[in-house]
Design goal:
alpha/beta; five-stranded mixed β-sheet
Length: 759
Amino acid sequence: MDFTERSTRVYRTKQLYTKDELAARESLCVHEQSAFCTAACPLRIDARELSRLCAEGDFTAARAMLERAAPFARILAAGCEAPCASACRLNEAGAEGVNIPALERAAMRHGRPRTGRGLLKFKKKKTAAVFGAELFTLVLAAELAAKSYPAVFYVSEGTAAELIALCAPFLGGEDAAAALSELEKLDLKIEYSCALSAGFIASEAVKYDVSCVSREVYAALGGGGSDAVTLYDESLGVIARPDETGGVLGAFYDARRAGVSADRLVQGMSPASSRGEEGAAESSLYTDLSGVRPSVRVPEEGVYSAGDAQSEAARCIQCACDECMKSCAWLRHYGKSPRVMTREIYNNVGIIMGDHMWNGAINSCALCSQCTVVCPNGYDMAEICLSARRNMVATGKMSLAVHEFALYDQLFSNGEAFLCRAEPGYERCKYVFFPGCQAGAVAPEAVWRTYEDLRRRLDGGVGILLGCCGVISDWAGREELFAETRAQLAAALSSLGDPTIIAACPTCAKTLAPLGNCTGIWDVLLEIGLPEDAPTAVGIVTLHDACGARGDAHTQRAVRELASRLGCAVTEPEYSADRAPCCGYGGLAGYARPEVAAEMTAAALDGAEGLQLTYCMGCRDRYARSGAESAHILELVYGAPSGSPPGISEKRRNRLELKRRMLREIWMEDDAMEKLDFKLEFTDEARALMEARMVLDTDVVRVMRAYRESGDAVVENDTGLIVTRARLGNVTFWVKFTEDADGYTVHRVYSHRMTIETR
């Protein structure tokens, strides 16, 4: 099968999801939900951030945050009823909630006031008036002034001090002085000692575009109840509170709502239009409390000292739902929540032309579904990324550079290295051993010994099926190739009499399950027992669950039981069983973004010591390649030497040699490998480059054969190396070498997706 390059002149698009489907997926992510304390506050003051700033001793930033949230922050801090403290999750962990109002008071006391004049604001043409003094109208007048309305505040009090005392009688001396100072700095005209009669108000109100009144004035005007949401009484044409419930916090919240209504009215709009979300809300934010220890609230005697405020703020557990971010190296690498990632992927797929910036993220997801397991709502990034890959393939937007090597590797496994045979002496078999392509590539001796043991101890005939289950093409979004692979395997199984499949890989087992009865090699070994020469005192190991076994508690238990019989003292990583991370092999992550796959491997091995025991050969290879002592459980059972991790060319040779060994020693058929008619050697540098750039020995052989036929080459002046090239499929390979009488020594190898034209 050939994979053709995408056209650069034909553009197609296919919608990934409908808008409703997208919204349904996004709604599952609660990462951006407000903390419970913040949601409980009608002003939506970020109490979590306030606590963080205070804990760090940055009271100036904390004060600035409060002053941005509401005018007269001192009044609010002194009188707030603190629903945030009641909503604090610490109350559910056997402790009192964080004393947020006390932190607000401390921030106002210890933080420095804002300096500078701020942005130049231009006065609006519309005007506003506020009649009558109470906390609601005081805050509302300040809100209107902040919105740059030319506003006048009519009060019956004779002085500013009397006004503050009336509106906030609970303020102490220092706080009262600060509130008075803030009042005097407002860009607000205040008319003192006004006789707020109905006639006076009627004569003055006509001068303004919008009027707001205190509860007392509203009653004097005969107000019968303003709207509960907008606070607007259409019959009187004024904004007023329908009642005085809610205390200090309620007055501030109502003043904010009234300010929005005033905006709408002066613009000629309905005061109910475009208001957005207002007030307190219910939060669905998930926070894991399992590791939270109860703590004691710091007593407040007067205003907290800076030290006491820091200690109290440090009790905040910074509620956040980041379970997936903590466990998934892929999400941590891109630094975005699943909700944001989904939106970015959706937009990326919808692009017809231009740069598809999120292709790398889409193709480097391991598709392991760990995120789904750890998420309280089961968010499935694997489904989203796989759907996006299939969409990109269908619309010709999937670059071949991403998965081509892996796809050709699958074709090699199911082509040249493929073997399907019944056990000698049988036409139909009761069982067939399917080790998987990675087992044959990484640990062929373990595959050989396992098959020999199964033939010896199982009745009814044990066939062999060497090949790839097809998951590589599924991961790549190549649905057509995946279907063809399934058909090939189904035909192979049928030729053996549809035997029970004994899989050595949980991913293979899951992929092959639709084709017939499938069991794991660990189940078989538990049933028939370990071989006589199997070890029984392996010692301490760290067991890494395969992501292919996610949701398969039976396999997880079976592997642990088998490890126990081998004398393994199993230790569990932080994330294990269904919560286990991918090693970096899954989803073809290593092909798309090697650096991201390396982060996955490092995360999976974080803190693990000693022998890293796996039951997935992809995991075993990734861990060994990163320098960890690693073994597949079959290597322990059969004492098969692990050796150093094989390179990509050696993996192919291993698969091919395993097939030929079986044909030669079991079925007495000779299938000798073709030998080169010239010497070809590689320097260590060349080997390293080939491994990093996924260039096979066979690729270099084909390039050198082309050179021997054509003689096309140039000599590099600086090094004296001979340079030749050949285009193989979609890739042009460059080989730098030296030549002697016997053959060639390769020094450097490159590959590029380009076509070289000579004129």
